[in-house]
Amino acid sequence: MRILHTEWSDGFGGQERRILAEMTGMRARGHDIWLATRAEAQLHTAAEAAGIPTLRLPLRGAADLASAARLARQLRRLRIDVVNTHSGIDSWVGGIAARWAHSPVLLRTRHLNNPLRRGWTNFVHYLPDRIIACGEAVRTRLVDECGFPAAQVVSIPTGIDFARFRPARPRHSVRAALGLNDTDELLLMVGVLRGVKRHLLALEAIHRLGERRPHLQLVLAGDGPMREEIAARAETLGLTGRVHFLGHRDDVPDLMGAADALLLSSRSEGVPQAVTQALGMGLPVVATEVGGVPELIRQEDTGLLVPTEDADAMAAALDRIFADPGWAKTLGERGRAHAHAHFSLDAMLDATERLCDDLLQRPERTTR
Fold first, then answer.
1. Which residues form the Glycosyltransferase subfamily 4-like N-terminal domain (predicted)?
2. Domains contained in the chain, number
3. Looking at the predicted structure, is the pLDDT value of residue 342 above 80?
């Protein structure tokens, strides 16, 4: 197949990593892959480094018909079979371009668990042949709450290449590089430092554990607009020396190998890759019960779930993990088995190939 992805975002979080993994994975299976994005997007740089050809477009907004016209010409020139859009702006531009170019298949991947509203002012949502939800919870919300036809929405969870996602350095050397030792309790958070991730709530939970867990260290891998606010709040709570800001990291497997547990404190998620990655490595996880997280974590079986915006419940769950390392290890082992069975990269690519192939084989394809 000849597949082109579009992406407007200039960040490089879980959404962009899934797109890159899908593009490289499908290319390894023999498909021809392109990416259309903005020149300043981090995904553009990553895709070019991976050898994926990119088309640079301004993507100035949803009504950027000039970008849509340019993209439509490229779709016809490259004889693209499948157009897969991802964010809001590129879904408008890419969706319009795909229909102008009469591309056989148009997909939209929905990475977030926020609602999408259908209506004449949002006609772009009527354009895709299928909307790919990154988990069953996202699919259910689109169908039950947002009114999308059940037949239009399919769940394909984000998959991780567990064979490659493994530490390259030993635990003690990673900890030493962070200024930590083997007696410290290392709690890791991986993600962009923005409001929806609720790092401020995590600080409140850590503060509540102060006397009971004096060796607890919170390590934040990721950067974002709330870094200064989070640092200021940590100082106010007396946690400055126990909260470590690492910024963007490319050695997340090393960090997970050095950690004792992973924390997700978000108020909204799709199916978070950090949780999937941690489970795949056997790392115990405490996470808020949002979006597709319950698909990954079965309470007290593959991890611990806590309500959103509940620092006390979060603190209690973390205390259980650190107070009983043997039980936490068992949670991690069950989490690893669950993740490898249901959330692997191969499972995601298999489902994507089946979907595209089925749509391309439709009798009505020849009339488009």
1. 12-164
2. 2
3. yes
Amino acid identity of 32?
D
Say yes or no to pLDDT of 366 above 50: no
List Cβ neighbours of 315 (8 Å cut-off, separation of 6 or more). Answer: 205, 206, 208, 209
Pick from 362, 347, 348, 353: nearest CA to 129 = 362
Decide: pTM greater than 0.70.
Answer: yes
Q: For residue 40, which phi and psi values (nearest 5 degrees)?
A: -85, -5
Residue 211's pLDDT band (cuts 50, 70, 90): confident
Q: Are strands 82-85 and 2-7 parallel, antiparallel or unpaired?
A: parallel
Q: What is the dihedral of CA 28, 33, 37, 43, to 10 degrees?
A: 0
Of 122, 141, 153, whose CA–CA distance to 269 is shortest? 141
Question: 122: which 2 tokens?
Answer: 């949002």
Residue 210 lies in a domain: yes
Domain of residue 221: give its range: 171-342
| Contact yes or no for 311/205 (Cβ under 8 A) | yes
DSSP assignments along 285-323, one per residue: EEEES-TTHHHH--BTTTBEEE-TT-HHHHHHHHHHHHH
Q: How confident is the model at residue 368 (pLDDT cuts 50, 70, 90)?
A: very low
Rounded CA gap, 270 and 131, in Å? 14
Does residue 164 belong to any structural domain of this protein?
Answer: no
